[in-house]
């Protein structure tokens, strides 16, 4: 078991408050930043599991603070897909190498984010369920996959609070399933229960601060920041998935 000093725990606590607040204010990005910071201290698969526990508290508190804005009609089929996708990929985790999948995800997110608004909308059956399947399976492999469903919710024309609240529910479910399956595989996240309690409390505090900030942002400014941040995260995935990077 890795020993963390008091200074390490303080640094992680501050990072968790900041990243959780960032995600609550702009709807994304915080989980990815925290994942990168935790990677300094932990290695896979423990890293994904610990990150998942913290994100459960970060996302669930964010959802609770915007409960009336959750779009359950859109969220429900995605949640079903997440459960099925995570369970399906679990037996193949040890043999799977999907690093190139990040490039595909990045391209998909960019297309959803910047697609022109057509007067005639083409509805593809099962889009939400398929997205959930990708979210569930890729979440087990890549850790932070929030931009995937954020891009889909953005393409549906939702208001800022609905995007943030709905994706918070989606990511809460994704992380719960992920942590449960990693625990079943023998990943001992509970050896770090004391640290997890501190960082989970920090995540809730960050959600509260970030939600207050989001309420002060105009819909236009939020939309602009959201799209460009989403694009930056997608480009990062695209580059990381390139074989020459």
Structure characterization notes:
The structure is a single chain. The protein has one domain. It is built from ten helices and no strands. The protein has helices at residues 6-26, 30-38, 46-64, 72-89, 101-114, 127-142, 146-155, 160-184, 193-216, 219-240. The longest helix is centred in the C-terminal third of the chain and has 25 residues, at 160-184. The chain is globular and about 45 Å long.
Please give the largest β-sheet.
none
The strand count comes to 0
What gyration radius follows from the Cα positions, in whole Å?
17 Å
The rounded distance between the terminal residues' Cα atoms is 32 Å
Class by SSE composition: mainly alpha
Helix content: over 70%
What letter string, H or E per element, gives the SSE order?
HHHHHHHHHH
**How confident is the prediction overall: mean pLDDT?**
84
Q: So how many helices?
A: 10
Which spans of ≥5 residues are poorly predicted at pLDDT below 50?
A: 117-122
Number of structural domains: 1
Beta-strand proportion: under 5%
The dominant shape is: globular
């Amino acid at each position: 078991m890795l020993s963390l000093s008091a200074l390490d725990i303080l640094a992680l606590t501050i990072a968790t408050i900041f990243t959780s607040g960032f995600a609550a204010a702009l709807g994304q990005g915080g989980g990815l930043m925290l994942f990168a910071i935790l990677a300094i201290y932990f290695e896979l698969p423990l890293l994904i599991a610990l990150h998942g526990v913290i994100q459960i508290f970060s996302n669930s508190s964010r959802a609770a603070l915007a409960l009336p804005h959750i779009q359950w009609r859109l969220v429900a089929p995605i949640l079903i897909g997440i459960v099925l996708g995570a369970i399906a990929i679990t037996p193949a985790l040890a043999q799977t190498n999907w690093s190139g999948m990040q490039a595909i995800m990045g391209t998909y997110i960019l297309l959803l984010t910047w697609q022109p608004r057509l007067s005639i909308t083409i509805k593809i059956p099962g889009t939400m369920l398929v997205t959930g399947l990708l979210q569930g399976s890729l979440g087990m492999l890549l850790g932070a996959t929030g931009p995937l469903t954020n891009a889909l919710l953005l393409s549906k024309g939702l208001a800022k609070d609905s995007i943030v609240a709905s994706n918070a529910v989606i990511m809460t479910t994704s992380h719960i399933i992920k942590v449960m399956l990693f625990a079943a595989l023998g990943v001992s996240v509970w050896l770090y229960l004391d640290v997890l309690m501190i960082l989970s409390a920090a995540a809730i505090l960050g959600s509260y601060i970030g939600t207050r900030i989001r309420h002060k942002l105009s819909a236009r400014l939020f939309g602009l920041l959201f799209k460009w941040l989403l694009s930056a995260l997608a480009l990062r995935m695209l580059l990381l998935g390139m074989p020459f990077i």
